[in-house]
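Design review, sub-item: ligand-bound model
Attendees: FS, YL, KQ
YL presented the inputs for the zinc ion complex:
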Amino acid sequence: MIGPSTKWMLDENILRCPACVSGPGRDPTKADPGQLQVVKEKWLVCVDCGRKYPVEDDIPQMLIEIGDKYRATPTEELS
Ligand SMILES: [Zn+2]
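KQ shared the predicted structure:
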């Protein structure tokens, strides 16, 4: 994919879920926790805890509170 909106997608390899990296529920024995998966080109979904972070105006919204909000939402229902 080519376009300005894909710039942040490169960051999926760098960004990590803040809850899994530094939140109270983190697992200190886990190597490289909180990896993110791109869903529908505008969501970053944590493979460990299922928190979902929306990308708004090409900026991933990486706040634990925001991830919490969508945690229970199935990925197929994200829009
Ligand atoms: Zn997580």
